[in-house]
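Tutorial, part two.
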Amino acid sequence: MTQTLETLARQSQSMHGIRSVVHTMKTLSVIKAAPYERAAKAIQSYHDTVLKGLHAFITHYGPLDLPAQPKAHHVVIAFGSDHGLCGNYNESLAAHLAEQLGETEASRTVLCVGSQMADALADQHIEVTQTFFSAASVDGIRRLANLLSRQLETLRTEQAEHGLAVTLAYVTEDAERGRRPEITPLLPIDPALIAALQEKPWRSRSRPFFSMQAQDLFEALIRNYVFSILFQAIAEALKTENAARLARMQQAERAVDDRLEILTAQTRAVRQDQITTELLDVIIGFEALKK
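Running the prediction step on this input gives:
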């Protein structure tokens, strides 16, 4: 009986330790999610400013003539995690991406953010060309976005004859549709967006004026457009990753609490049995002495 109590005590101690770890991970997920959410909102303002710059450029120089690139080299950037404890976050995105890509474009380049995401893509038989570490902070988002922008510039130089078609894959979350995989094109720029900027009136008494050369200005605007979209995708992926980890930790916390309740009930029952046995021994001994 004593051995059973010791076993239950060790199990209870282990479960309390696990609960402490789960609670710490839960707290970290809550703390880290808020800055990523603010970063996603902040970069939206930056993105709107870049679009205003494109609008001013189109107003000054006239409609853009973007050539079609039917043989453009396809580049896919998948944003996942370097750490686990977030459920099927990486696996669901990898499965959705594999379904969208199919068996075509075997020569595509796949850039992956997060080692866990790389493993999930490998399970879907998607060959990863290069893997990057995920951002560990808000400052890391900027550095990662710059690194990916430079990588895309390198690929654009290598594929100068055909051009690039870039697609982003990440997990997003909203109040209406919940958590879901998102596959969105980055380059070439959506013709509908360019058409909307061309049709939008310039609401000012003076026309826009630029001191930079048109080509240099246009390239700078496109670089900032790419940077803002990459930054937003990274921030959104990190925010959703922490939300998924938080949900997972809440489930684990409830499971640990349920297990602790069972262990507590078992310990009380064993103690009660032990007390009852000791009392019976005393009573039996007393009766024996009385006889």
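The chain has six helices and five strands. In part three we will examine how such features are distributed along the chain.
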